[in-house]
Design a protein that fits this description.
Strands 1-2 form a two-stranded antiparallel ribbon. Helix 2 packs across helix 4, helix 7 packs antiparallel against helix 8 and helix 8 packs antiparallel against helix 9. The chain has 11 helices and 2 strands; from the N terminus they run H-H-H-H-E-E-H-H-H-H-H-H-H. It has about 240 residues and is mainly alpha-helical.
């Protein structure tokens, strides 16, 4: 392994060194030597095992930390974590800031995630989870305007959570803060009529989930996001 790594560094491909570190950590996880939340080997141990220089190891660890896979704790070492959602969130924020994306595209992506989550949640009935989703809806019906954004976000987040699909939850986590900001801006323009339409879509999604009416449930989700996308375009929110 030492000869192969030395060749990689000498050919000016040190930026690929972190792949070697990832593969080694994957092997440790596979063997049960490291778990999420657990400490990975020290820089010195990695240097010895992989035959890499200290600078290469540090660069690789810094890359993994930026990816949301590692957390450096002062005086304790590096720990394997799952902060990928936060890392992706930063990426989406940059895309919005540089005008490489916009709120409509964020809404469209969230739409696809939510439809997939609904289909999975319908296949895996969980009475307690569905009851809690209904309780969130009841709170939305009774809340004041300033609490709507928080509870609306909670409804959508929880629907995706009960899908049981970790990747959908991860993607939603990455979009969630951006979507909350978008909805905050959106509520400054939305008419009461459209807000009432959105609330009815929420209720239809929930009712269809209880009845396992997949077709109508997906239709309600699409109508919900159609209303949002129309207003985003009409008021040029986020432009």
């Amino acid at each position: 392994m030492g000869e192969k790594t030395e060749k990689t560094e000498n050919t000016g491909e040190s930026e690929k060194v972190y792949f070697l570190v990832i593969e080694y950590i994957k092997e440790l996880v596979k063997k049960g030597d490291v778990k999420f939340g657990g400490k990975i080997p020290s820089e010195r141990e990695l240097m010895s095992t992989l035959g890499l220089s200290r600078n290469s190891i540090r660069e690789a660890l810094r890359t993994l930390e930026n990816m949301g896979l590692l957390e450096c704790r002062q005086g304790q070492g590096n720990f394997l974590v799952n902060h990928i959602g936060q890392s992706l969130s930063s990426l989406f924020s940059v895309l919005l800031f540089t005008k490489e994306s916009n709120y409509v595209e964020i809404s469209q992506l969230r739409r696809f995630i939510e439809i997939g989550a609904f289909l999975l949640a319908a296949k895996n009935p969980d009475p307690e989870a569905r009851e809690e989703l209904g309780e969130i809806l009841d709170k939305i019906d009774q809340c004041q305007a300033k609490e709507r954004v928080k509870l609306d976000k909670q409804f959508h987040d929880y629907l995706i959570q009960i899908s049981g699909n970790h990747l959908l939850v991860l993607l939603n986590e990455a979009l969630s803060e951006l979507f909350e900001t978008m909805i905050s801006d959106y509520t400054l323009h939305i008419t009461q009529k459209n807000w009432d339409r959105l609330l009815k879509c929420h209720r239809r999604v929930y009712d269809c989930l209880i009845k396992n009416d997949v077709q109508e449930g997906v239709k309600a989700i699409r109508e919900h996001y159609n209303i949002i996308d129309e207003d985003l375009n009409a008021y040029q929110i986020g432009e």
